[in-house]
Amino acid sequence: MRSLHSDTGYVLYRLGLRAGQLFNATLQESGLRLRHYALMRYLSTVPGALQRELSVHLGYDPSAIVSLVDDLERQDLAVRQPDPSDRRNRVVVLTEAGSAFLRDSDAAARRVTDELLDPLEQQERRTLHHLLLRIAAPKPGAPDGGR
Hints:
single chain, 3 strands, 59% helix
């Protein structure tokens, strides 16, 4: 019978847990978690996003997005604003304080990544990143956007 660690899916799951634990530990003082950070990092790449778009792009349940955005609004890190193209909708936008938080947390994020990938050489890290991006790429026609 195969060992548990011979299952690549399980190894990826364990790595994800470890990454989340390390990252959450670095964010602990701010009261945020990795999910908040991921949402903010995504918002930093777009001028604003509908909550349902955030759910699709991040792969989070829509109800979780509402709670995460509420948390970020309480800390003035993001805000809901009227959608310029349809005033009935609200878009979530990163605030200047949110952008500053991301800038300030970049070094901590790199330390977490360095700790996780410490056993790998630089070229191996680039290769792993490239392979993970290929695996995580959306699949055409998938109902959930392939995530």
